[in-house]
Amino acid sequence: MNNSDRNKKFYVYLNILICITLTILVFVAIQYHSIQNFQHLFISNQLINKTTIITKLNNLSTNQINSTIQ
What we know:
By secondary structure, the protein is mostly helical. The protein contains 1 helix and no strands. The protein has one helix spanning about 5-70.
């Protein structure tokens, strides 16, 4: 095997390695973005749940106060 064949083989493997690395980086970036979106959704969902619970508790308290007054 001469030097030219070795160089070609090396560059083929190098190109394959670069392609695999770029593919992994793109995959990781997509997963990171998905996790960020999920966290944003989870946090906003928690806020909505807290607001709903507080509203229900306020309504319940108001109803109890009104029923004891009457």
